């Protein structure tokens, strides 16, 4: 029983792990360079698949980017130089984790600022609403009689 459960768990673990789209002909012979290429590829977004990095994507452009990364590494570029080259060529969109510099700082700051504004607005709204109930005027006798009359007809 334990063996069967372990087998099922192992099967789910293997099937549930992300499949890498790196083809054997793309792999570099130098394991250090190949590891650097994998590290860089994990940070770059596939421009077709959007939610995947280029290592996980089967798109043709992702393959081209993987080959470009490996080509630049073989030429002697550092990891930062490779990423800078690809960002210069394809734009900042290819970064899975955008930089927090320049105009991007507005995007990074917008979420917390808007959240605080929403909290303050909600608090003000709820306080005014509770104060409005306290100051509500009761119906006069004529109004109550008219209301009862309307409800009887309906």
Automatic annotation (TrEMBL):
**Residue intervals of the CcmH/CycL/Ccl2/NrfF N-terminal domain:** 10-151
A GO BP annotation: cytochrome complex assembly
Matches recorded under InterPro entries:
C-type_cytochrome_biogenesis, CcmH/CycL/Ccl2/NrfF_N, CcmH/CycL/NrfF/Ccl2_sf
Signal peptide range: 1-21
Tell me one GO molecular function of this protein: metal ion binding
The record's listing under Pfam families reads:
CcmH
Segments crossing the lipid bilayer = 105-126
Origin superkingdom = Bacteria
| rRNA-binding among keywords | no
A GO cellular component term found in this entry reads: plasma membrane
Q: Which UniProt keywords apply?
A: Cytochrome c-type biogenesis, Heme, Iron, Membrane, Metal-binding, Signal, Transmembrane, Transmembrane helix
> Which family is this sequence assigned to?
Belongs to the CcmH/CycL/Ccl2/NrfF family.
Protein task = Possible subunit of a heme lyase.
- Please report the name of this protein according to its UniProt entry: Cytochrome c-type biogenesis protein
Q: Which organism is it from?
A: Aliiroseovarius sediminilitoris
């Amino acid at each position: 029983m334990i063996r069967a459960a372990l087998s099922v768990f192992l099967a789910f673990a293997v099937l549930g792990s992300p499949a890498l789209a790196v083809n054997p002909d793309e792999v570099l012979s130098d394991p250090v360079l190949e590891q650097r290429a994998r590290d860089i590829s994990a940070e770059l977004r596939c421009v077709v698949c959007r939610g995947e990095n280029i290592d996980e994507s089967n798109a043709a452009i992702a393959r081209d980017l993987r080959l470009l990364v490996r080509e630049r590494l073989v030429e002697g570029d550092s990891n930062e130089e490779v990423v800078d080259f690809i960002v210069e060529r394809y734009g900042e969109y290819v970064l899975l984790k955008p930089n927090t510099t320049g105009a991007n700082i507005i995007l990074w700051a917008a979420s917390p600022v808007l959240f605080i504004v929403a909290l303050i607005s909600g608090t003000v709204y709820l306080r005014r609403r509770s104060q409005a109930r306290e100051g509500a005027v009761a119906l006069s006798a004529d109004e109550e009689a008219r209301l009862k009359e309307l409800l009887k007809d309906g």
